[in-house]
């Protein structure tokens, strides 16, 4: 409703000002509401009635009827109807009328119940991509971004519920890289060890929980099936193919990795 939309817009703007996020760069509204699941509930009710009728007539006649068959499919219909209705309820409660705003210094996730503001220079994000297949044919990819805010224990999760995920996902990742890489470089120059989950870097080395190599021996970073490997002149570092989805701010790490590798070993493979 118009009044509710204005209220959401007001709260989004208040959040942006409070976090000093700057001017709006792009806006992505919430997508369409999931189906209500009415068809599934109607199917469920019909199957229950059919099972009851079949069971009653079978009890009177002493013959085998289809009550078990109808009952089994009624369970399946109930599960589908419940899942669809739950998604619709969550949409109405949290997403309806909301939007994702990308701004100069951060973003606002405009949930219906509570906007959340994130700054590019402090947030940590993990990205999960899942490719879906049917009969061996790829049918699509779902994208999930999990944001960890400084001082907050519970992360904020968004996905393709906001339209344009193929646009806003890379834009957010690049904005975080642009904001955080200069900060991390200054920390490295000051002698700090900077961690990215189980990966870490210093001005002289890159490492994992159980292995490390000086930058002069580092040759490349490879990604295969959603997992990353670090390579040195002595072979892959002991990382056990760490999934990218488990590495916070992976693209910041990747950018720094290439910067430091080329600075110390410019002839190594890219």
From TrEMBL:
<feature type="transmembrane region" description="Helical">
    <location>
        <begin position="69"/>
        <end position="89"/>
    </location>
</feature>
<keyword id="KW-0472">Membrane</keyword>
<keyword id="KW-1133">Transmembrane helix</keyword>
<feature type="transmembrane region" description="Helical">
    <location>
        <begin position="38"/>
        <end position="57"/>
    </location>
</feature>
<protein>
    <submittedName>
        <fullName>Uncharacterized protein</fullName>
    </submittedName>
</protein>
<keyword id="KW-0812">Transmembrane</keyword>
<dbReference type="InterPro" id="IPR046492">
    <property type="entry name" value="DUF6585"/>
</dbReference>
<dbReference type="Pfam" id="PF20226">
    <property type="entry name" value="DUF6585"/>
</dbReference>
